[in-house]
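Morning, I've got a small favour to ask if you have a moment. It would help a lot if you went through both lines with me. I owe you a coffee for this, so here goes:
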Amino acid sequence: MSNESSSSHFGTIVELSEKNFDDVLSDNKFVLVDFWATWCGPCQFMLPVFDNLFKKYGDRVKFGRLNVDDNQAIAMRFDVYAIPTFVMFADGQPVDRAVGAVGENGLENLLQKNQ
């Protein structure tokens, strides 16, 4: 019997930064990135939604969070001007996005149509 946790194939949601962002994108076919900030109410609302979808899709999609206050250059690079913004990447390139507290259905639609 294995004592491994029942988390997804990818393990955990990755805390992204300028140091690891490009590596994570290049190492995974599909990546969903949550651009957020600690002071953002709608971002806090979406945290458990993002976590739930990670549990459901984490074996097929890499999930990452990027704090825009700590990583402004990356947010600007991908034209993130409002948060939360969720950007779906395929093969390292942005292919779709959802802006705002879109709820579980809105975020799940983004995942389903882009993988």
